Amino acid sequence: MGDRWRVEVDRSVCIGSGLCAASAPDGFRLDSVRQSHPVQDEADASEALLAAAESCPVEAIALHLAGSSEPVFPPD
Ligand code: SF4
To answer: Is 37 inside any structural domain?
Structure first.
């Protein structure tokens, strides 16, 4: 079975660019005030999620291995 990732968005820094939802439409959605939310708190590891985290201009997206504090992005 592949890894599962915990997906978090720090909405105190999100500027609503929408890049994450464009990169991973299954992973993120913007609310009515253009704040990004993970569609699911945990999701299967995927290139799209990683690309979304990497594309965020303010590094608002954090990915961790589910059930642990081990970072996926940003790396340690
Ligand atoms: S890419 Fe970053 S700043 Fe842009 S909407 Fe997503 S979380 Fe917010």
So the answer is: yes
